[in-house]
Amino acid sequence: MSIPVLPDGSVARAAVEYVRSFESEPVANHSIRSYLFAVLLAEHEGVAVDTDLLFYACILHDLGTSTSAPGKQRFEVEGADLAADFLTNHGYGADETDAVWEAIALHTSPGIAERRGALTCLTRAGVSADFGIAVDCVTDDQATAIHRGYPRLDMAAVLVGDIVRHAARSPHAAARYTLAGELARERVDPDVLTSLERAAATSRWGS
């Protein structure tokens, strides 16, 4: 079975360039892999979804951890805002941008994202799959091809570092019991791995 291909339209290419201009290569690759895994999961489950919007929700989902984010709110919310601005500036309407906004804002919210429709559910599922969660439907050949094109490069450690740096910019960016808030508290000792890094390291893909 082959792997999905990235959209090749002008806006899709601009989105990849936008992400790569603000995110590190490990995080940008994570965002791309999240989309590829999300498409494979949708095909496996027979779920109908707008793959155009799924691409933008996945590719833009970590913009809130980047230097383009203002650092005043949770990274998920700021990433959703940046994604909505990008899509609006490229001609997408309110219904489409709102759908992508919700998918990104809820991608770290288990039990909620799954109740908000196919786009939000699959965005979270694709991101989770890149951490090795619920990936039985992905063959070894598909995984090898995806990781050859978009290598991991110690993604988990880099992403956690970016989330923690963003969290340090404002108390509102690291509210208690949010992902960022808990990772920031776990990273008090930089030599001790966070629970997210430990989970990634022992997953099917590794860190």
From TrEMBL:
<feature type="domain" description="HD">
    <location>
        <begin position="27"/>
        <end position="114"/>
    </location>
</feature>
<dbReference type="InterPro" id="IPR006674">
    <property type="entry name" value="HD_domain"/>
</dbReference>
<dbReference type="Pfam" id="PF01966">
    <property type="entry name" value="HD"/>
</dbReference>
<dbReference type="InterPro" id="IPR003607">
    <property type="entry name" value="HD/PDEase_dom"/>
</dbReference>
<protein>
    <submittedName>
        <fullName>HD domain-containing protein</fullName>
    </submittedName>
</protein>
